[in-house]
Amino acid sequence: MPTLRFQHVLTPSGFGPAAIDIDDKGRIAAVEPIDSGPWDGWLALPGMVNAHSHSFQRVLRGFVERAGGERSFWGWREQMYRVACHLTPEQQYAIAHSAFCEMLAAGYTSVGEFHYIHRLVDGSESTAMADAVVAAAADTGIRLALLPVFYSQGGFGVAALPEQQRFIYDRAQTFLDYVARLQKVTGIAPHSLRAVTQTELQQLVGESVDLLGDNRVVHIHIAEQQAEVRQCLQQNGKRPLAYLLESCEVDDKWSLVHATHTDQSEWQATITAGATVVLCPLTEANLGDGLFAATEFTDAGGRLAIGSDCNARIDAIEELRLLEYGQRLRLQARPCLYSDDLGATLWANACANGARAVGLETGTIAPGQHADLVVLEADTIIGDAAPARVMDAWLTGGDAASITAVYTGGVRRAASSDGNALRRVLGELGLA
């Protein structure tokens, strides 16, 4: 049974020197106070959980920033589809491997992969694309929660576009049969209200319990764009989140991704239901989505997790920085999300909420949890200071370079991506 010893450990009860005993299954057996070294590092944090990722979109970095066509999310989506139409399983593996290596280096020890390229290029059904993601996670050491996406139509009452055919299942039961053949699945993900009908959504949510168990989670994109809100109002007479809450029994197993354009009554109902809101500030900024009312939501007791989404930039602490700074710009005030120990509280809550969101037993340093850790050294940030102040400094002025070690299941990870493989994929896709 290995033991890791740190001068400071962030546990649910705060900071303190501790020895972390790890069992032969990679779980934390005990966290014991200690008063002397030798030390395995200065500060151990729970590994961040990336609660929303599309790993294949990592390959788009730098190739979708030119103004052309509609200058919005919808124009970006057209360019993304051009890549999605041509990806092979081998290319998916290379891209996911690169993205997962970056995630580990950036403080993410787990990832919820919102996976929706199901079919092969010729349209035939296969698990090969999902299997490539699973293999990339296994080879890098990141903990994977696969969230297969159900997508049956191209918009509210609109047939799927030709470029969406690799995502499409026309029946919920056929999709669930496909999900049953996949590995590492912790939940299901109806893509969005525009991509599924109300009947399909209800069937999918209900029957997924029989397939995956009572602890399965449900993720859905919701109210990310103003156009989606307008279309939902026109089609259903209600705003997206209000319509979802009326259509389904949303509970604490649900995660609402983005929820950008929701009003107070909608996010208050989300808190009452116990659902988590997953924000992806770097992607939401990249796509020009807007800002969710995160301060009011957390002040009222709401749970927030974070995700890297399109993976244009992968850095957990930067995701949290933009989350906080976006609220400061919106409200013209500071600090916004938490008044005490901002950096430590943001990190700890995002870890715990992310783990809950994707259905993994990680996100806190406590007995029974997976031994997924991120280690910082104070002198890489501001020098000798209390750990809470170091976390504040890291939040406002640091980045992934301050991380000196990452563990998943108690194993130190040093995964490095194959730059040649990624360059080859860029060339094959015409992006080089």
Describe this structure in words.
- By secondary structure, this protein is of the alpha/beta class.
- It folds into two domains: 3-46 and 368-412, Urease, subunit C, domain 1 (Roll), CATH 2.30.40.10; 48-358, TIM Barrel (Alpha-Beta Barrel), CATH 3.20.20.140.
- Helices cover 37% and strands 20% of the residues.
- It is built from 14 helices and 15 strands.
- The strands form two sheets. It has an eight-stranded parallel sheet. A seven-stranded mixed sheet has the order 3-2-1-4-13-14-15, covered by helices on one side.
- Helix 2 (89-105) packs across helix 14.
- The longest helix is centred in the first third of the chain and has 17 residues, at 89-105.
- The radius of gyration is 21 Å and the shape is globular.
- 51% of the residues are buried.
- The model has no long low-confidence stretch (mean pLDDT 95).
Give a summary of the structure in a few sentences:
The protein has 432 residues and is an alpha/beta fold.
Kindly state the mean pLDDT as a whole number?
95
Radius of gyration: 21 Å
- CATH superfamily (homologous) name of the largest domain: Metal-dependent hydrolases
Q: What is the CATH class of the largest domain?
A: Alpha Beta
Low-confidence stretches: none
Our count of domains comes out at 2
Spell out the key features of this protein.
2 domains; 37% helix; seven-stranded mixed beta sheet; single chain; alpha/beta; 14 helices; Urease, subunit C, domain 1; TIM Barrel; eight-stranded parallel beta sheet; globular; 432 residues
